[in-house]
Amino acid sequence: VRVYTVAQESKYVVVFNVPCFASESDLINIAKPFGEIVFCEKVSHLFDHEEYTDVFRFKFIHIDSAREMKRKCDETSLLGSILHVQYSPEAESLAETKEKFMKRIDKVNELVLQYQENRERALRYKIPTEPLKLQSVASCPPKSSPMTHKSSTNDEISK
């Protein structure tokens, strides 16, 4: 399991190991189900890649779309080649990065507020109970056993 920070995730996704005979429309058809695509461009000149393969970059409108594509398309096959999908935060502008962090701050604040409201609601409806009163062991009366064992003496045994 790999965990990504807010800084590492991005609306931009890079797809490696795309066969050179695959068309851009093939990739767009793979990415469309995950959300609205802003653009798809060939960026093989920017990255090291294997011979006879290309590299493409997508930009999605929502980061959730990029997250879903990364999760579902990484290590999938396209025309006999295994695709490798990764985020591309280096393609973001400073304004896009700032927007991403502000949205995350808003989301975290919303979750904290929701947690606090749920907690307060649960405490409001909790049935009040009296605290338990503990007694010391010395003050407890001894329990009488239902079967008392009478010690036998030598006289009783001889009878």
From TrEMBL:
Alphabetical UniProt keywords: Coiled coil
GO CC, any one term: nucleoplasm
Cross-referenced Gene3D superfamilies: 3.30.70.330
Tree of life domain: Eukaryota
Region named Disordered: 136-159
GO molecular function: nucleic acid binding
SUPFAM superfamilies in alphabetical order: RNA-binding domain, RBD (SSF54928)
InterPro entries registered for this protein in UniProt: Nucleotide-bd_a/b_plait_sf, RBD_domain_sf, RBM48
Coiled coil: 91-118
Transmembrane segments: none
Protein name: RRM domain-containing protein
Organism expressing this protein natively: Vannella robusta
Origin organism lineage: Eukaryota, Amoebozoa, Discosea, Flabellinia, Vannellidae
